[in-house]
Amino acid sequence: MARPVIALLTDFGTRDHYAGAMKGVALGICPDAVLVDITHEIPPHDTLAGALELAACYRYFPVGTVFLVVVDPGVGSARRSIAAEAGGHRFVAPDNGVLTVAFSETPPTRVVELTERRYARSIVSRTFEGRDLFAPAAAWLANGIDLSELGRPAASWHTLDVPAPALADDAIVGEVVRIDRFGNLVTNVDRHTFERFADARGIRILAGIQALDRTVATYADAEPGAVCALFGSSDHLEVAVNGGSAANRLRLTRGARVIIARA
User: Fold this and answer.
1) Does the N-terminal or the C-terminal CB of the chain have fewer CB atoms within 10 Å?
2) CB atoms < 10 A from the CB of 22, how many?
C-alpha cells in the first residue's frame, strides 16, 4: 500500500524552524507520511504568489495527496481555516484565497471549516496556526479520517482577484504574474488564448521596451544572451533570456504589462 503524501507550500523560508516544526507535528500524527516540500520561498504574506505556485504543480501529485498550504497574513485573526476535497486531492489552508486558482481549475466537491478541536494540538498559538492547527488537520487526513470529521461544512470560501488577460480585436494585454528564480517573466496569457488570437498571422510581443516577433520552442532556440518568448512548463507565455534573467535585463516586475499585437 502506498504511503500517504503531504505536500507543503509556505512563505516560511528555511532559515527558521517553522517549516520543520510543522513537519514534526505531522509525523507525530502520521509517521508513515511522505513529506514533500513544494516551496517555502513564497514572498512573505503573498497569497496570490502562493495560489499561483500551488496551481502550477498540484495536478502532478498522486491522487489522495494532502496539500498543506500556509501563506497566512491573517494568522490569529477571525479569518476561517478550511479543508477541502478537489480532483481527488485534499487541501488544508487558511480561508484567504490561497486556494483560488486550484479551485478555479478543479472545483472542490466538499469544503469544511476546521472547527473540531480534537484534530488540533491542545494549545493553538495565535501566531503559529500552521504548526498547531493546519499541520495536525493535514496529518489526520493523511491518516485516513474523512474530511467531515474536521468540522462543519462551508458553503463558500474566500477568493482572490486573479489577473486575467484583456482581449481586443487587435491585441491581448496580459501581465507578468510570476517571476521564477531564473528571472523568467511568466504571464497570464495561456497558449490557447495566444494561438486563437495569433492564428496564422504574424504577431508582435511587447514587454517593456523589448519587442519580439515570434515565439521559440525552448530557451536554447534563442542566441545566448538573447531575449525570447516561449510557452514554458505551465503552458503560459514567458519572456526569458537564454542564459540570463529577463527580469533584470528588462527591469520588469510582477504586474508589468505584456502586449501581444498582430504584426
Assistant:
1) N
2) 27
Q: Are residues 235 and 179 located together in one domain of the fold? A: yes
Q: How far is CA 213 from CA 230, 243, 259, in A?
A: 11, 20, 12
pTM of the model: 0.94
141 and 182 in a single domain? The answer is no
| 219: its cell numbers | 530557451
For residue 252, what are the CA distances in angstroms to 4, 58, 209, 221? 41, 28, 10, 23
Which CATH number covers residue 173? 2.40.30.90
Residues 6+ apart with CB under 8 A from 134: 22, 68, 70, 81, 92, 93, 94, 114
| Count of other CB atoms within 10 angstroms of residue 107 | 10
pLDDT tens-digit map of 221-255: 999 999 999 999 999 999 999 999 999 999 999 99
* Cα within 13 Å of Cα(78), Cβ side: 0
Sign of CA dihedral 129, 30, 17, 69: negative
One domain for residues 20 and 126? yes
CA-based nearest residue to 67, from 43, 104, 38, 40? 38
User: 178 with 230, same domain?
Assistant: yes
Closest CA to 152 of 218, 102, 72, 82: 82
CB atoms within 10 A of CB 131: 23
Query: Element (H or E) spanning 142, and its range?
Result: helix 135-143
Residues 6 or more apart in contact with residue 117 via CB below 8 angstroms: none
Give the mean pLDDT of the chain.
96
